């Protein structure tokens, strides 16, 4: 697995620099029928004992949720914004994959929770096929967490409790938006927002019945950490059912 970014667009680090002139010279030598001389990296830093990337070795973790909690806590301190942003992947009825960014609004041993409109494209796809994949990418830490699992709706009480914490303007927007449906114009949307705002000018805004949340219950976790020379660390946790114990395996990068 290759991490985010290509060799050209990633920040240049001393341990990742190669002698371009040496490479070009060896290529010319080989083209002329010469023997492979072997390319040497300019940095002789050990790839066996690089600078520690975490406190301790994360690959020694025996349980994924606690490890996710540690990484997420570090991400909240290092990410410039939205450390809880995650890519949510679903499939439509034809099997075509779909992905978008959403915000994780909570997690525990039961799963990872996010909210949206039930009639949105993601909502319709999850109703037809209640399985999903999540991806957290924390660029500041050079880490990824991949999660795959089954999906179930949150309770009305959970959705009500979270909706009550949203800013009033966001609550009004949830009423005014027909998410994923064709929109005539921005002006039409602003008119709908103004109409709802006038309706709830005073008092609390209730949760729309078509707005709720989902919980992704993990069956697979993969933790990825960048290493020099793309010799990354990857560990996977898996189980066949939520009530089973996790098994762990280390993966080639």
Number of strands: 9
Order of helices and strands: HHEEEEHEEHHHEEE
Structural class: alpha+beta
**Main pleated sheet:** 9 strands, antiparallel
CATH top level of the largest domain is: Mainly Beta
CATH architecture classification name of the largest domain:
Roll
The residue-averaged pLDDT reads 84
Give a brief rundown of this model:
The chain is α+β, with helices and mostly antiparallel strands and 253 residues long. The protein is 26% helix and 27% strand.
Please describe the topology of this protein:
Layout: H1 20-31, H2 64-78, E1 85-91, E2 97-103, E3 106-108, E4 111-117, H3 121-128, E5 131-138, E6 143-153, H4 156-163, H5 168-176, H6 186-199, E7 211-225, E8 233-238, E9 247-251
Antiparallel strand pairs: 1-2, 1-5, 3-4, 4-7, 5-6, 6-7, 7-8, 8-9
Helix pairs in contact: 5-6
Walk me through this protein's architecture.
With 253 residues, this protein is an alpha+beta fold. The protein has 3 domains: 1-45, no CATH class; 57-164 and 210-253, Pnp Oxidase, Chain A; 165-206, no CATH class. It contains 6 helices and 9 strands, in the order H-H-E-E-E-E-H-E-E-H-H-H-E-E-E. Strands 1, 2, 3, 4, 5, 6, 7, 8 and 9 form a 9-stranded antiparallel β-sheet that branches.
Structural descriptors:
6 helices; Pnp Oxidase, Chain A; 253 residues; alpha+beta; 26% helix; 9-stranded antiparallel β-sheet; 3 domains
């Amino acid at each position: 697995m290759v991490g985010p970014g290509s060799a050209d667009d990633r920040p240049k680090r001393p341990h990742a620099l190669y002698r371009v002139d040496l490479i070009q010279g060896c290529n010319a030598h080989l083209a002329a029928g010469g023997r492979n001389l072997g390319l040497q990296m300019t940095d002789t830093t050990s790839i066996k004992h690089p600078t520690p990337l975490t406190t301790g070795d994360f690959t020694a973790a025996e349980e994924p949720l606690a490890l996710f909690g540690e990484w997420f806590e570090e991400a909240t301190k290092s990410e410039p914004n939205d450390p809880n942003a995650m890519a949510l992947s679903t499939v439509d009825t034809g099997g075509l994959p779909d992905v978008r960014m959403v915000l994780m609004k909570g997690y525990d041993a039961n799963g990872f929770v996010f909210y949206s409109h039930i009639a949105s494209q993601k909502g319709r796809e999850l109703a037809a096929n209640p399985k999903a994949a999540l991806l957290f990418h924390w660029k500041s830490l050079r880490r990824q967490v991949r999660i795959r699992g089954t999906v179930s709706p949150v309770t009305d009480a959970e959705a009500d409790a979270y909706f009550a914490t949203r800013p009033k303007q966001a609550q009004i927007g949830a009423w005014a938006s027909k998410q994923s449906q064709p929109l005539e114009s921005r002006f039409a949307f602003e008119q709908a927002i103004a109409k709802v705002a006038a309706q709830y000018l005073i008092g609390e805004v209730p949760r729309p019945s078509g707005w709720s949340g989902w919980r992704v219950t993990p069956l697979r976790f993969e933790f990825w950490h960048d290493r020099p020379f793309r010799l990354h660390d990857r560990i996977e946790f898996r189980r066949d059912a939520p009530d089973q114990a996790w098994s762990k395996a280390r993966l080639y990068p």
